[in-house]
Amino acid sequence: MVSKKYILRVTAILIFIFWSVLTAVNLLTTFSISNNLHSGTTKEVSNVVYLLFFLAAYFHYRYRFYRSENYNFQDLLWKIFISSTLTSFFILVVSLFFDRYSERMFFNNAIVINATYQIILGLITVIMIHTFTVWKKLVLYQKSKRLFVQWQVFEYAILAALLFPFFNFDVFDTYYNVILSVVTLYGISISVGNLKWVVYLNFKQKWKAIIILLIVGINLSFFMLNLLAYEELELIIFKPLTHVVIPLIFAFLLIYGLFSILVILFNLPTSSVFERNFEDVFNFQRLSESPGANMSEDQVYHLLMESASSAVMADAAWISIDEEGSSDPKKIISTGINKKEIEQISKIIKSGYGKRFFDVGIIRRNVAGRISIPISHPSFKSALPIPLIVQENKIGDLYLLKEVPDGFTGEMMTTINIFTRQASLAIENRQLLEDAIENTRYKEEIKIARHVHAKLIPQSEYQCKEFEVSGLAHSTDEVGGDYFDYKISDDDKVPFIIGDVSGKGTSAAFHTSQLKAVFHSLGLLQMQPKDFLILANQALSECLDDQSFITLTYGVIDRSKRQLYFARAGHCPTYYLSTNKENGHFYFGKSLGIGIVRNVSYRNFVTEDCISYQKGDIIALFTDGITESRNGSNEMFSRERLAEIIEANRTKSAMQIKQIVLDELFKFCGTAHLNDDYTLLIFKFL
Q: Bridge-partner residues for 383, per DSSP?
């Protein structure tokens, strides 16, 4: 099979050869005309050579971006900016040079002018084709089958426009204008509505993109003005605007760039590059909240498959669960595809191009790039296989399919990895729970873990002149990961925290101790809650295993300013009750658990709230073991019921409110032995 590098080298050589031939033909014609000789060449020869030069450049850049996994929009735009700006600078220098020495005979020579023009024409043609290919990549980002077909029609129309000079139509006559207008309008109609890449730029990147697109537009306009200027010179033999494809591509590039700038301007208020991803992850939060408690293993698989398909707009999907000791799957769960098609595509993936992914283990749960396996099938053209890992063992695979080639992007891969991690975590916790019941050694470890966990929690109430605080963290028969703490010192700022570590047992207790260490270390720095969560995510991601994460809320009470700052990381919302209001308010805020996104982009998922408190105000922090506890009728205790109890007892002390909430919780559930860990922390300001 011919390599991509070889094809790029061949097309690059062809570009230079055809440009050289075009230059030679036009210079020979110029020399012949200047000396009243017959060159033996015709206008059609130049048109044919230019057509070949154009096609060589077109296929060179088309193949360069074919199945390219580079969706770094800033990088793509920056390359266009550099190449177009350098070309503009070169043309400007040449123009100034000719103006400066125009009185000299050498610079009035027809051959010199035509040679210079051939260099400029070649550069402009290559830059415009390069820009067109980048614009195509932007338009087809997250493409659908319909858009893919529409774009192919547009490209074929542009290539067909290369034949215009061979019909001997005059430049800018009716046929010329009709072709230019119709094809340009068609290209604009299918492209201006496909600017999905814009939303993946953060605020700073959007401003950079606006500046880059603006300068690229100026450069393109400068190119066109130069071509028009040369078009008017009688010394120029080859007229480029005879090829309607040049103004056609120019019009498309300029208008799409203008629409991109306008869309970016309207999207400036968007907060981060991962907004769409955050919505998808937020919809999947229930896979990680009380994992496995109210959901069977099959339900987890169905939820994973359906939600993953929706998140990446897959046309079909299936989950294959492995049978231990057998090559045949134990079960298959599918949507949008039948059993026969599953068997066909499985063979294609594991025996063709996709085989290397399984052989060398490229597919991992933390893959950052895009993996899209091309498949040859009547209904589907690209596949995204993801392994399901539980306790370091692969239990099966999730397959997502699309009807178009290269239908999956790096952002989609990141989102699906988070989904599968959460789903695998739910399944794993069920298995761990079942194993723990039968394992005596594990029970002994549980005793140790419970002792360690108890030492991590404050054992007494606290009251000062600014506030009083009362809390409780209770684990079920297994050791949980619920944790709360606060640090009182002579400083005006008092940090506090409440968290829930995924899983149970010794690992949960161990991660809880790590969380306590981070809290006491970073708490001394008196940083803002948002900064704390960013640094905590960085520190804990280094020690958390791949299947663990932590939800928490961190806050700081500023006693001197009588203000409260807090931010949450995927935890239950914070409830605040003001003496000036009859009802309290739950603060949600954008958030994501510690350890789910383990890179610098985590800062995009954190927001911070600030409240000025006064005497009598109450803040309540809790874990889902409180609000999601159920009674005999399978009714949840709920956040609303918790708020009503606190509001009804707002005049009581923090310790009294805490005890009343617990009493009402046990009364609601009909027992004091709940099925999940529960933690409650009450602050009342004095």
A: 373, 401
Are 319 and 398 contacting, i.e. CB atoms less than 8 angstroms apart? yes
* Sheet of 574-577, strand order: 462-463, 467-474, 678-685, 618-622, 574-577, 585-587
Q: What is the 3-state secondary structure (H, E, C) of 464-486?
A: CCCEEEEEEEECCCCCCCEEEEE
Is residue 522's pLDDT more than 90?
no
Which of 603, 600, 587 is closest to 532 using CA atoms? 603
Q: Over 50: is that where the pLDDT of 359 sits?
A: no
* 3-state class (DSSP) for residue 320: strand
Query: Smallest Cα–Cα separation from 501: which of 548, 569, 432, 538?
Result: 548
For residue 548, give the H/E element and its range: none
- The residues, ordered by sequence, that sit 6+ positions from 40 with a Cβ below 8 Å of its Cβ are none
Tokens found for residue 456: 């991590």
The Cα 322–Cα 327 span in angstroms is 8
For 171-177, the CB contacts below 8 A with 24+ separation are: 171/239, 171/241, 171/242, 176/244
Is residue 596 within 8 Å of residue 274, measured between CB atoms?
Answer: no
Indicate whether 420 pLDDT > 50: yes
Tell me how far apart the alpha carbons of residues 680 and 50 are, in angstroms, rounded to a whole number. Answer: 76
For residues 582 and 593, is the Cβ–Cβ distance under 8 A? no
Residues in contact with 267: Cβ distance below 8 Å, sequence separation at least 6, in sequence order: 198, 199, 201, 206
Percent pLDDT > 90 in the chain is: 17
Provide the CB-side half-sphere exposure for 501 (13 A, CA). Answer: 28
